[in-house]
Each structure stands twice: as structure tokens, then as C-alpha cells.
């Protein structure tokens, strides 16, 4: 096995020869491969690890369904078919490359910061999903260095996990269902349409290494080196092709999101750079659809972030209690993907209605939208795999879902609450008058400019006190004044009344009124200017001359509109121009005006302040002030300030005020100013407390950011040290290479003499199938002489039966895959022909090597063995009692129809290849036969026992083993197991 894996190692290294100038990888960064499976996965793992090089630089985590009462060491079984060290995972154990870690029985396993963490299963008797559980933590911890491989198994475990892997830019491989002993797990994974490769287990290693070794997937390359593969306008060309074929524009998506998805496709197709990928897109339009689906990968599950849904439920409960019976509840789920989040919201609404009670319940309208048409179709059916049982409580599962084959379907009444529709958030009109708007993990893919356009749209769509529910990684950006935080941790906000936002939405595509005027202005005839009517002129005169001066402001005091002449009350100050009423108000007006605005905003009512005296050039002007909170839909949340000028105070009135101390004007003014000052101070204290809370929150975020920066700085210092160490290693390697060159020259001479003396016929061909060298034994198979060196092998006549020799040689050169065939000469002699890539001293593929090993005697023995095997199987079928035929390793070779009938299995094929150990321990669930299993191959053994079998119930059976032993060396050739009731 070691030699076989060494050959594979060299083959894969040669396949990556074009990448030899890449920057060396950091020792700390290596891929982590999760291999998930259950029944029948051992056979697939044996083939996978047999073709995996011993020093691939990857770590392998094997996650299987092991019963909590499992007896025996699975690690020892795995160690039998791999030279990699296999250990059972321990809690807190760091993961290292070129090792295999196995999940222990009755444990859930996760990974954090490269360390394996073991946990007691949360559901002892429920539906456990260890593969899903580990894959989700692996995706969060390793991102694009994570790979999921799903092998043979029953159920749908792994289906949710691979969604998370793909969301974090990882890669997914699945065993071809045709090669799987149990195809449920592979079929469930393939049904997600997120699988990168569907392969037989033995084909997985080469694809895995080619993908992960591609320069586009190397995290260690800096941006400058990566940009060498990207033309200046390459991304724009890709986006243009996407828009042309799909009709969707991704130009406002984050650049990193797009480039990372394209990098994955480069590695998948093994293309060197973006220029080649653009050519590939133009030649293969179906690849555009694949890339489109990659950009739309939406990963969700039922009640994702359960704590966030608990907070949301409390808010919904309060919102629904105040709803009138005839007032609908309107909800918009943006980016619903396959519908799990929309159904989760619907379940919360139903539970809230149950808690509120009452004969009538408001009508519920839930709009769930997404850009992906296939995801919308999936959501409409409401059918999900049975692994959703891990995310939904048994109570909810029984009430809102109907059990179907291999999964669950949402109940009809819940499906009818939701309208699923394809919708482009960027260019389609939004839903309005909403009570709840959820947009989770959508905006993280959009650039800041587009996010700045979408947030005002959300504000516009919501009703007063409507709720906005964002993802944990999303923020409001610079629009925090539009929303009040209900729960900052889980990003749940309430719409705040304030300034109209239409001015911030004029650039949004759904605002088409201006575009419509532009489109049709040329075609329509120019309309004559309409003369103003008498009523319009009269109304204008009244507004300008006879209505009091008034100002429209928002909650912060910013002036939005002015009516009438306000110069007596407001004035521009020197310095930077500001249009805030608190800054522009005259000194005597500032205190009462500020207090009235604050009271009107907090009380949602009209505040009147009478008898305010303004001093102007020795005169005193009396002003009445009225501040109102507007309730009109278009102006909701704004304030109207009205100034009523009562005129100048006459000298007589002023003298009357000074006749007695009780009318002292100065005292009254000071008392008023003192009252206003106290009120202003109280308002300032309240504002300061609010600001202090906001500053505390900001400080916490800054501390978190500072910690991240410190961590990044430490990583940079570590990288610098690693680079210095790497430079020293390279200098040492250079000296070693010089000595190795001399050794290789000597080895080359030794190799020549060895090839000339060997009994194996060998012939070397270059890339053009020109003969480079051959050993004397080849002359028995080819009509060659020494002077034929330098000629094409196509010009040489060969003495064996093999019509596709030339085609197979080309295939080996192109794929780097070793090919072995058996050929028969004209003299009825048999040879094993092995074709493998020819390797130069510089480790480049430069041809192919053909070796011929004589196997005539072996073929004769093989024929005799096959004849004997067929005879034994025919004798087995004659038996009327259940019987099995085993090889020397206790693997089932065949069984008879009596066995199939007795144990009620579907066919004999299900038993072939299954180990008797696995049959006894995992299917019969018994350890009573352990002693029998150890003796059955050495001597005829009989045992009688009683067991509760899975299908046929409790039976008492007698098992007799009859081994067939080679008389020459005493080795057991095969064993027959006979079962009697």
C-alpha cells in the first residue's frame, strides 16, 4: 500500500507541475476535509484513502453514525486501509495535516480555531445529525479551506451542512449514487444543487488535490499576486455576460463576493486566469447559468439564530394585540431562498394568535421573495428533508408539518399564508404598508452604495412602529436616525417617525415617474401653458400676506420648508451656514422655541407659548408661538412651527408695567428665562443620557474592532517570522539540491544498468510517442532494434492483441492516470501492461512508460480459481437452508436465495462485499458471536443463540462455519456459513 500511495503522491505532484513557481503555503493553513457517511461508507472510504497520497497536506475528519452502545474500535478498521495515522478524536485536540480523526460513539463534534470539541448529543433518543452539526461549525471556522465529502449512507444527514460549506466558499464532493451501497445521503446532497463533484470514491483524491492546489484557492497569495491573473476589465466582462444571458446586473454586488465565486470556478475548471475563463464562458453558455446560481447561493434553515426569533416573537405579540380585526398583518421576507425563514415567521404568527385568543384574527399577508426562481419553486412546495427535525421542536413539527417519505411538508393552511414570488430587490418596486420586514444575510453581498439606497426603501415600506429584522452581520449604516433599536445584538429595529425619505430614494430604479416623463416627452405634443385661475391667484396672495409665518422642521430642528416672512424671528448667523431652527432663532426666542419643540415631539400634541417678548433696537415685540406634531401620512413625524406676531409693545403699556414692584418687567423676564433654562437643562440631561447609551454601544463596537486589529497585527508579525524562517529553509534546500544533483547523476547510471538486467520489459516514450529507451525483454513484444530509438512507436509492429494502444497512451499523457491492462501475445502468453506518466528529472510530465510483466502462470491459476468459485457458488444455491460464502477476511462473496427469504432482504446484491463483523454488530446488534468470529476461519465451529432481529423478530438459530483450507500452507481460502433455525 505504501508503494501504491507513493505512486499516487508523485502523480498528483506532477499534475501540479505548472504551479511549481507559486508562493509556498503557510504551515498553519491547510484544508480540513470532513468525510460523512453511515451504512456502507467503510467500503467507499477504503477506496478513497487507498488513492490518497500520504503527505497531501490535508486533515481528514471522519464523521459517522455510530450507535452509543457500539463495541469495537472503528479507528483500527480504518487504519487497515490507509497509511495515514488514524485516531479517535479527543476534546480540545488540535487538528494537524496528514492525519485522520474519527468521531467517538455517542458524541456530537464541532471545531473552533482548529481544535476539535466534543459534546454530549442534545437529543439522546431523537433524530441526531452529527454530519450536519460538524459541517456547520467547520464552515464557520475554516471558510474556503473547508471541504465536505458525503459518502454512502441512509437518511439526509449532511444536507444542511453542505449548504453552510458552500455559503462560506467551501467545496462539496458526493459519492456517485450508483457506486454507493446506500444512496440516500448522496441523493439528498445532490438534490440541493450545490454539489461541485459527483464521483466514485477512488476518483475523488485527484480532483480534490487539483482543486485545492489551484493558485486561485491559495489564501497565502496576497492581492497583488492574485491580481496578476485578472485583467483590468475582466470582472466587468464577466458581469456583462451575466447580464446579457440572465437579465440581472451584479455590478453593485461586493467585488470580493464576485471574485471569490469566480475564483472557485477557475479552480473547478483548472483555468489559469480570468481571461481564459471569459473565453470559456463565451464558448459554454451553460457555465453562465452555473456562475449565476453560485452568486445566488442562499443558505437558510428553520429558526436560524433561535434566540433572535424568540426576541422577534415578543415584539410580534405586542404588535398583533393592537391590530383591529379588519386590519391586515403585512409581512415581507426579502431573500427568502428556499422558504425556511418565511415559514418560520408564519409559525411565529400562528403561535402569537394562539396566545392572544379571540374569535376573530386579522388577515395575514406574507410576501416571500427571492431572485432565484428555482429556490422560489422549492419554497412553494414546502417539502423539506427529514433533517429539519434537528432545528424544529417536536411540538412544532407535529403541528405545522405532515410526515412524508424521506421528509416533511408544511401544512396547507401555513402554505396558504405565504405568497412566494420572484423579485429583484434592486430594480423591482417594494411591498408597502408592512408591519414586519425581514432581510437577513442579503445586504452582506451588496456594496455600501446600494445598501445606502435600500435602507430608505425599507423605511418607506414599513408602517409607523413597523419592525425591521436584519441578519447578525448587517447594519443600518448611516441611517440610524430612521430606526430605533429593539435588540441591537440580533439587529431588530422599529421604524422611527422622522423626515420624509423620498429625496433619498430618487435614484432607486422603481421610482419611475421621472423616467416616464423623459420617455414620452418627445412623442407628446407640447401643451400650452395654462393660465392661473382667479382662485389660485387669490389663494397665493392669502398665503403670502395674511397667514402667519410658519416653518416645517424634522425632529432634529432641520428646516424643510418656510412659509411667509420669518425675518423677525429667525436670522442667519455668522460662520458656516446652517438651516437648523435652534441655531437661527433669535436669542429671546431660543429657550421657549426649543422647549416647545421638545414637548410637541414627546407628547405628540400641539404646544402653545404666548407672550414671548423679543427686543429689537429699543423696542419690544410680542410673539405667540405654536408647535404641532403632524399626523398626515406624507408628513408623518414632522413638526410645524407657527409664529403669531402681536406687534410692538407701546410705551404706555411698558410704563404700566413699572408702576409697582409686582409688575417689574425685568423680574418677569428673568423668571421666564429661569423656567425655560430649567426645562432646557432637563431636556439636555435626557438627551445626554441617550447619547451616553449610544456612546457605550459604540465604544463596545470599537473595542471589538480594536481586538480584531490587534489579532490581525499579531498574525502579520507571525507571518513575517514565518517568511524569515522560510527564507533560511530555502537557502538550506539550495545547498541540498546541489548535492542531490550529483547523487541523481550516479543514480541515473545505476538505473540504466538495472533496467538492462531486469526481467520486466520496459519501454520509454516521450510526449510525441517517440521511443527513448527500452530493455531487452521488450523485443519479445515489439519488433524493435537499437536503431529504432528516436522513431515513433506507431511505426513499430507489436506481437500482442491490443487495438487501442495509441489512444490509451494519449489518455495517460493527458490525464496523468495510471492504466493497467492484460494483453495476450500471438504465442498465447499473457503479460500485464502498465502505462504510467514518464517523469523527467525536473519533475515534468514528458511522455509515458510502458512495462510488461509476464503473468501467464498467474492467468492459469486465476482461471482455475474462477472455475472453482463458480462451482462453489452453484453448490451454495442448491442448499435449502440459509448460507453465506465468505473470503479469508470474512467479507461476503455470495449468499443463496434461502438466506434472502429467511432474513427478508430485497436481493443478494445487498449482501455482497459486506463484512461479517459489520453484519453481526451493526445489523444484528449482538456481541454473542465475537468468539465464533475469531474461530470460524480456523476450524469448523457451531453456535446456537437467540436474538431479536430487525425485520424477522426474535429467532433462535444455529450457525455452522465450514472453512476451506489450503493443504499446502494451511491458509483459509474461503468459509461457508450455514444457518439453521
What this model shows, in words?
Helices cover 39% and strands 22% of the residues. It starts with a helix and ends with a strand. Helix 4 packs parallel to helix 5, helix 9 runs parallel beside helix 11 (274-283) and helix 13 (306-321) crosses helix 14. A hairpin with a 3-residue loop joins strand 34 and strand 35 (953-965). The strands form seven sheets. Strands 3-5-2-1-8-9-10 form a seven-stranded parallel beta sheet. The radius of gyration is 40 Å and the shape is elongated. It contains 29 helices and 36 strands. With 981 residues, the chain is α/β, with parallel strands linked by helices.
Q: Mean pLDDT, nearest integer?
A: 80
Question: Which bin fits the share of residues in helices?
Answer: 25-40%
The rough form would be described as elongated
Q: Order of strands in the sheet with the most strands?
A: 3-5-2-1-8-9-10
Kindly name the structural category: alpha/beta
Radius of gyration: 40 Å
SS summary, helix count? 29
What amount of the residues lies in strands?
15-25%
| Overall number of strands | 36
Specify the biggest β-sheet. 7 strands, parallel
As residue ranges, the low-confidence spans are 1-27, 510-530
Q: State the distance separating the first and last CA atoms.
A: 42 Å
Amino acid at each position: 500500500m505504501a508503494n501504491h500511495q507513493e505512486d499516487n503522491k508523485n502523480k498528483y505532484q506532477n499534475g501540479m507541475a505548472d504551479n511549481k513557481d507559486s508562493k509556498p503555503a503557510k504551515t498553519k493553513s491547510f484544508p480540513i476535509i470532513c468525510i460523512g457517511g453511515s451504512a456502507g461508507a467503510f467500503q467507499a472510504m477504503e477506496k478513497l484513502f487507498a488513492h490518497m497520497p500520504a503527505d497531501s497536506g490535508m486533515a481528514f475528519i471522519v464523521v459517522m453514525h455510530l450507535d452509543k452502545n457500539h463495541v469495537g474500535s472503528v479507528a483500527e478498521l480504518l487504519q487497515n486501509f490507509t497509511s495515514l495515522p488514524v485516531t479517535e478524536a479527543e476534546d480540545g485536540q488540535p487538528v494537524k495535516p496528514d492525519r485522520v480523526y474519527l468521531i467517538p460513539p455517542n458524541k456530537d463534534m464541532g471545531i473552533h480555531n482548529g481544535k476539535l470539541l466534543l459534546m454530549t448529543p442534545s437529543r439522546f433518543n431523537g433524530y441526531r445529525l452529527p454530519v450536519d452539526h460538524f459541517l456547520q461549525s467547520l464552515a464557520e471556522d475554516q471558510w474556503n479551506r473547508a471541504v465536505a465529502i458525503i459518502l454512502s449512507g441512509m437518511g439526509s444527514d449532511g444536507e444542511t451542512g453542505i449548504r453552510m460549506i458552500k455559503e462560506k466558499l467551501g467545496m462539496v464532493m458526493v459519492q456517485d449514487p450508483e457506486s454507493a451501497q446506500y444512496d440516500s445521503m448522496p441523493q439528498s446532497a445532490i438534490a440541493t444543487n450545490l454539489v461541485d463533484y459527483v464521483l466514485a470514491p477512488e476518483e475523488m483524491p485527484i480532483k480534490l488535490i487539483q482543486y485545492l492546489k489551484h493558485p486561485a484557492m491559495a489564501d497565502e497569495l496576497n492581492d497583488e499576486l492574485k491580481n496578476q491573473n485578472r485583467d483590468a476589465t475582466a470582472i466587468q466582462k464577466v458581469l456583462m455576460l451575466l447580464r446579457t444571458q440572465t437579465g440581472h446586473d451584479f455590478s453593485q454586488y461586493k467585488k470580493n463576493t464576485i471574485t471569490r465565486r469566480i475564483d472557485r470556478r477557475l479552480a473547478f475548471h483548472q483555468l489559469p486566469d480570468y481571461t481564459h475563463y471569459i473565453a470559456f464562458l463565451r464558448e459554454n453558455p451553460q457555465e453562465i447559468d452555473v456562475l449565476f446560481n453560485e452568486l445566488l447561493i442562499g443558505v437558510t434553515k428553520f429558526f436560524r439564530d433561535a434566540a433572535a426569533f424568540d426576541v422577534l416573537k415578543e415584539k410580534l405579540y405586542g404588535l398583533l394585540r393592537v391590530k383591529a380585526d379588519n386590519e391586515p398583518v403585512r409581512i415581507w421576507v426579502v431573500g427568502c431562498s428556499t422558504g425556511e425563514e418565511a415559514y418560520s415567521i408564519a409559525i411565529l404568527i400562528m403561535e402569537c394568535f394562539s396566545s392572544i385568543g379571540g374569535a376573530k384574527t386579522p388577515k395575514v399577508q406574507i410576501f416571500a421573495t427571492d431572485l432565484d426562481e428555482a429556490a422560489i419553486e422549492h419554497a412553494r412546495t414546502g417539502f423539506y428533508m427529514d433533517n429539519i427535525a434537528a432545528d424544529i421542536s417536536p411540538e412544532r413539527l407535529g403541528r405545522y408539518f405532515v410526515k412524508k417519505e424521506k421528509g416533511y411538508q408544511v401544512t396547507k393552511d401555513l402554505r396558504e399564508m405565504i405568497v412566494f414570488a420572484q423579485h429583484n430587490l434592486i430594480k423591482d418596486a417594494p411591498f408597502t404598508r408592512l408591519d414586519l420586514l425581514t432581510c437577513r444575510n442579503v445586504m452582506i453581498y451588496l456594496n455600501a452604495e446600494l445598501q445606502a439606497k435600500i435602507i430608505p426603501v425599507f423605511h418607506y415600506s414599513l408602517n409607523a412602529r413597523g419592525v425591521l429584522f436584519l441578519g447578525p452581520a448587517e447594519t443600518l449604516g448611516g441611517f440610524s436616525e430612521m430606526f430605533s433599536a429593539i435588540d441591537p445584538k440580533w439587529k431588530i429595529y422599529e421604524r422611527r417617525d422622522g423626515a420624509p425619505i423620498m429625496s433619498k430614494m430618487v435614484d432607486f430604479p422603481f421610482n419611475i415617474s421621472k423616467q416616464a416623463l423623459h420617455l414620452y416627452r418627445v412623442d407628446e405634443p407640447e401643451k400650452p401653458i395654462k393660465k392661473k385661475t382667479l382662485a389660485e391667484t387669490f389663494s397665493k396672495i392669502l398665503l403670502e400676506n395674511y397667514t402667519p409665518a410658519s416653518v416645517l422642521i424634522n425632529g432634529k430642528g432641520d428646516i424643510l420648508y418656510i412659509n411667509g416672512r420669518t425675518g423677525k424671528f429667525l436670522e442667519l448667523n455668522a460662520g458656516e451656514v446652517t438651516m437648523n431652527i435652534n441655531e437661527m432663532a433669535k436669542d429671546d426666542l431660543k429657550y421657549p422655541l426649543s422647549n416647545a419643540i421638545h414637548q410637541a415631539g414627546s407628547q405628540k400634541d400641539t404646544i402653545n407659548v404666548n407672550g414671548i417678548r423679543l427686543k429689537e433696537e429699543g423696542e419690544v415685540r410680542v410673539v405667540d408661538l405654536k408647535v404641532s406634531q403632524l399626523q398626515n401620512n406624507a408628513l408623518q413625524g414632522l413638526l410645524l412651527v407657527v409664529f403669531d406676531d402681536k406687534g410692538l409693545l407701546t410705551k404706555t403699556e411698558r410704563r404700566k408695567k413699572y408702576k409697582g414692584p409686582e409688575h417689574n418687567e425685568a423680574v418677569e423676564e428673568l423668571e421666564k428665562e429661569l423656567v425655560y433654562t430649567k426645562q432646557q437643562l432637563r431636556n439636555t440631561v435626557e438627551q445626554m443620557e441617550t447619547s451616553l447609551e449610544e456612546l457605550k454601544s459604540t465604544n463596545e463596537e470599537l473595542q471589538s474592532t480594536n481586538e480584531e486589529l490587534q489579532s490581525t497585527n499579531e498574525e502579520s508579525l507571525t507571518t513575517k517570522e514565518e517568511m524569515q524562517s522560510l527564507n533560511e529553509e530555502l537557502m538550506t534546500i539550495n545547498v541540498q539540491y546541489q548535492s542531490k544533483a550529483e547523487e541523481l547523476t550516479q543514480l541515473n547510471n545505476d538505473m540504466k544498468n538495472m533496467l538492462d538486467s531486469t526481467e520486466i520489459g520496459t519501454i520509454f516514450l516521450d510526449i510525441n510517442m517517440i521511443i527513448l529507451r527500452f530493455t531487452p525483454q521488450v523485443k519479445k513484444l515489439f519488433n524493435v532494434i537499437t536503431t529504432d530509438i528516436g522513431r515513433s512507436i506507431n511505426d513499430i509492429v507489436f506481437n500482442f492483441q491490443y487495438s487501442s494502444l495509441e489512444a490509451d497512451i494519449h489518455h495517460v499523457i493527458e490525464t496523468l492516470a495510471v492504466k493497467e491492462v492484460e494483453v495476450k501475445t500471438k504465442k498465447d502468453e499473457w503479460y500485464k501492461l502498465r502505462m504510467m506518466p514518464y517523469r523527467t528529472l525536473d519533475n515534468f510530465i514528458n511522455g509515458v512508460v510502458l512495462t510488461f510483466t509476464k503473468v501467464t502462470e498467474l492467468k492459469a491459476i486465476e482461471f482455475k480459481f474462477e472455475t472453482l468459485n463458480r462451482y462453489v457458488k452453484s453448490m451454495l444455491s442448491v442448499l435449502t437452508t440459509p448460507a453465506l460464502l465468505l473470503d479469508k477476511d470474512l467479507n461476503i462473496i455470495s449468499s443463496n436465495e434461502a438466506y434472502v427469504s429467511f432474513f427478508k432482504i430485497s436481493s443478494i446484491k445487498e449482501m455482497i462485499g459486506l463484512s461479517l463483523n459489520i453484519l453481526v454488530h451493526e445489523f444484528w446488534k449482538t456481541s454473542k458471536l465475537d468468539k465464533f468470529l475469531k474461530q470460524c476461519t480456523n476450524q469448523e465451529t457451531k453456535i446456537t443463540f437467540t436474538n431479536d432481529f430487525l425485520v424477522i423478530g426474535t429467532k433462535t438459530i444455529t450457525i455452522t462455519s465450514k472453512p476451506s483450507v489450503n493443504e499446502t500452507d494451511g491458509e483459509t481460502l474461503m468459509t461457508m456459513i450455514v444457518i439453521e433455525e
